[in-house]
Amino acid sequence: MARKMYREAIDAYRQGPTDSPVTWNKIGIAYHQLLEMKSAQTNYQKALKLDPKYSEAINNLGTIFYAQKKYRAAINKYNAALKIKPDTASYYSNLGTAWFARKDYKKAALAYQTAVKIDPDIFENHSTFGTTLQERSVSEFAKFHYYLARTYAKAGQNERALLYIRKSLEEGFKERKLFMEEPEFEALRATQEFKDLMTLEPRVL
Fold first, then answer.
1. CB 18 within 8 A of CB 43
2. Which of 23, 91, 106, 193 has its CA 20 to 30 A from that of 1?
3. Rg (the chain; Cα; Å)
4. CB 142, CB 127: distance < 8 Å
5. CA 130 to CA 112: how far, in whole Å?
6. Is 36 exposed, middle or buried (0-12, 13-18, 19+ CB in 10 A)?
7. In this predicted structure, which of 10-14, 51-55, 90-94, 121-125 has the lowest mean pLDDT?
8. Residue 173 phi/psi, 5° resolution?
9. Which helix (H) or strand (E) element contains residue 118?
């Protein structure tokens, strides 16, 4: 799995115990990485047949629905996973991304803030191929990075907030005035780095 040899991983997992939901969930993730969504979904469902409260498989089913643009169904799965394991940052991160896709930015921001509170590094982790998939495909990156900047600013993580302010501006975020108005950025506004960013005309990527 770590070497991205997903077919070989599937063969290896199939040697594992067939009565373990972990086995089927991992086979599902391997198919997911191969973008064979139907096979991934089948295996997540096999895991859930063995353990209906296996939150990792519930979350992973949510990422299948998200990939299919069935955002409401994805939200339902992420919420179901959170009912079982309420302190899981990746589930909140996924929930935020699904709300973001539905353009409910207020609910997205709340979910992101909770994710960062649980795990300050949640958005810096680039993959979790163990038992849980974390959804990252967001079409409106400029706005997404603005909300991440806000999330980090609110959590007092100023360096990361500045990084995502820069990213959002480079991706063409138009509502620059929000950085001057939103209360989350108040502490940052006194810093030289913030002032420099506000005078920059970043080359839009």
1. no
2. 91
3. 19
4. no
5. 22
6. middle
7. 121-125
8. -60, 125
9. helix 105-118
pLDDT tens-digit readout, 21-59: 999 999 999 999 999 999 999 999 999 999 999 999 999
Provide the sign of the torsion angle of the four alpha carbons 50, 53, 56, 62, taken in this order.
positive
Q: Looking at this protein, which amino acid is placed at residue 16?
A: G
Residue 90: strand, helix, or coil: helix
Architecture category of domain 6-118 in CATH: Alpha Horseshoe (1.25)
- Residue burial 71-83, b: 16+ Cβ < 10 Å; e: rest: bebbbbbbebbbe
Q: Where does CATH 1.25.40.10 sit in the chain?
A: 6-118
Q: pTM for this structure?
A: 0.83
Enter the tokens of residue 41. Answer: 């979904």
